[in-house]
């Protein structure tokens, strides 16, 4: 019996060594690059589109010695019966079809001395077979964004494992973002496929894609902690598209996944109808804001009052702004939100009703002019000028009176979006206003700051970085964008998939196609 034991030990040792080498070769070829996806993150083994992986357990045929007796054959049969079978499981992943092979109850390492089946047949392991990395390390998967959706551990050991996993996820995200930033120096302007009357979509999206500073924050590690657990799809798809456009060698990318995510949230933009670019821009920013809102439980809404007998304008402004920030606070509001003061004066008792309202764009109407050209400053003055209101209920008279209303800029955002209201609707009549607009590459809003002493108004200078233009009429029109690249500082015309470098302008003297203007604070 001692001779047989020695012979069997040599066979088992040879088989274990061959299995380990092949499994080690397989594991060294796998990739664990993390994805910014809406699903749990764990170490993943990619199979490189192979349907299965063969581990040759015994390449050389081994025949039993002729002296082997009946007792030896019985022992070998018992060993085959007691061999551990792998457990097959399928883990469904939302955005990936990759299945993770792990071995049950055995880790593949050079110290594996457990008895394995001595056979002259090859063993085939399918994708569905699970290879457990360690029999003591079956950990629950953690979501990538768990800052506001923390799992409750059953014990301290699990909590430590979760914290380690979160730290590892953060490190992987940091490494990936560094890799993205490293590739940015090769990044050129990238177009967007038109997937069916989506020029309105592409033009507005290009302006946000080329917004300076905002997207650097969007790619930072902080963003994973701010993702709202209830709303996340638009932010996830925007992140993917942004990363893809910053690192691709292609001249254009397909935004279909982002459009589907926005369409599921805002039904208006489903299908393939031509829509308004300014309305889509508002919807995009609203969806991103909801996905990134740091406030998960909004306080009960309440009506705010403004009494100059009790507070100064500065105190009232802060009270209102902080109240809105307590309900809506995100990366979008950090960059795009300003504040307007509205004064409504009763024509009888001269009582003033005050209100502070936040804005994400300024919609400027065209004043009645005799010529065919107007400046952007003229449109801003008209927007902030006094207007008459009929049948307004005065807060002091408690009756409907004729009143006047005037707006005043109180807080300035870092990103200023200006909407030029070229599309005119009044009853059954609708038309496009083709008046030329004169505007510059620089904009100083200091002349429009009258009473505000807010710190955001200390710097009123802006640089133009994005334009959405519209050609044609209300029935047959086309949108495209002109944007300043945030890294190369070159200007490009972005017309769906077409990308063409253009010369920068100091001033736009007569432009009758500009529809949206985007400025960033200097």
TrEMBL record:
Domain annotation USP: ranges: 190-522
Reactions listed under catalytic activity: Thiol-dependent hydrolysis of ester, thioester, amide, peptide and isopeptide bonds formed by the C-terminal Gly of ubiquitin (a 76-residue protein attached to proteins as an intracellular targeting signal)
UniProt keyword Hydrolase, yes or no: yes
Compositional bias per record (Low complexity), positions renumbered to this chain: 104-113
One Pfam family per UniProt: UCH
Enzyme Commission designation: 3.4.19.12
Region (Disordered): 103-124
Protein name: Ubiquitin carboxyl-terminal hydrolase
């Amino acid at each position: 019996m001692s001779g047989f034991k020695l012979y069997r030990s040599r066979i088992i040792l040879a088989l274990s060594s061959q299995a380990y080498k092949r499994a080690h070769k397989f594991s060294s070829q796998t990739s664990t690059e993390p994805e910014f996806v809406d699903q749990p993150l764990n170490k993943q083994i990619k199979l490189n589109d192979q349907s299965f992986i063969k581990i040759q357990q015994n390449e050389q045929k081994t025949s039993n010695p002729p002296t082997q007796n009946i007792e030896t054959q019985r022992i070998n049969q018992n060993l085959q019966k007691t061999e551990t079978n792998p457990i097959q499981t399928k883990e469904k992943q939302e955005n990936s079809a990759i299945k993770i092979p792990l071995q049950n109850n055995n880790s593949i390492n050079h110290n594996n001395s457990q008895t394995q089946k001595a056979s002259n047949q090859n063993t085939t392991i399918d994708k569905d077979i699970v290879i457990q990395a360690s029999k003591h390390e079956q950990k629950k998967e953690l979501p990538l964004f768990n800052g506001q959706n923390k799992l409750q551990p059953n014990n301290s050991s699990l909590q430590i494992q979760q914290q380690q996993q979160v730290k590892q996820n953060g490190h992987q995200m940091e490494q990936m973002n560094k890799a993205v930033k490293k590739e940015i120096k090769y990044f050129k302007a990238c177009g967007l496929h038109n997937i069916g009357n989506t020029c309105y979509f592409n033009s507005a999206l290009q302006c946000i894609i080329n917004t300076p500073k905002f997207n650097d924050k969007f790619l930072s590690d902080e963003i994973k902690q701010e993702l709202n657990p209830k709303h996340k799809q638009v932010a996830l798809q925007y992140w993917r598209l942004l990363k893809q456009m910053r690192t691709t060698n292609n001249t254009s990318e397909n935004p279909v996944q982002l459009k589907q995510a926005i369409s599921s949230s805002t039904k208006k933009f489903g299908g393939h109808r031509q829509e308004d670019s300014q309305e889509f821009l508002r919807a995009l920013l609203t969806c991103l804001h909801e996905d990134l809102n740091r406030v998960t439980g909004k306080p009960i809404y309440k009506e705010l009052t403004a009494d100059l007998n009790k507070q100064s304008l500065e105190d009232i402004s802060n009270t209102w702004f902080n109240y809105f920030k307590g309900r809506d606070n995100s990366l979008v509001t950090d960059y795009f939100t300003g504040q307007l003061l509205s004064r409504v004066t009763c024509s009888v008792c001269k009582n003033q009703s005050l209100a502070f309202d936040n804005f994400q764009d300024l919609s400027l109407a065209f004043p009645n002019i005799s010529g065919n050209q107007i400046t952007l400053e003229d449109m801003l003055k008209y927007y902030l000028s006094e207007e008459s209101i009929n049948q307004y209920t005065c807060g002091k008279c408690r009756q409907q009176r004729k009143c006047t209303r005037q707006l005043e800029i109180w807080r300035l955002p870092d990103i200023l979006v200006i909407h030029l209201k070229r599309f005119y609707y009044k009853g059954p009549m609708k038309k496009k206003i083709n008046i030329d607009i004169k505007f510059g590459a620089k904009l100083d809003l200091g002349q429009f700051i009258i009473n505000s002493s807010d710190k955001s108004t200390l710097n009123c200078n802006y640089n133009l970085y994005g334009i959405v233009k519209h050609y044609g009429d209300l029935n047959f029109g086309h949108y495209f964008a002109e944007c300043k690249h945030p890294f190369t500082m070159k200007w490009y015309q972005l017309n769906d998939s077409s990308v063409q470098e253009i010369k920068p302008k100091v001033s736009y003297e007569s432009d009758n196609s500009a529809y949206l203007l985007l400025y960033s604070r200097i």
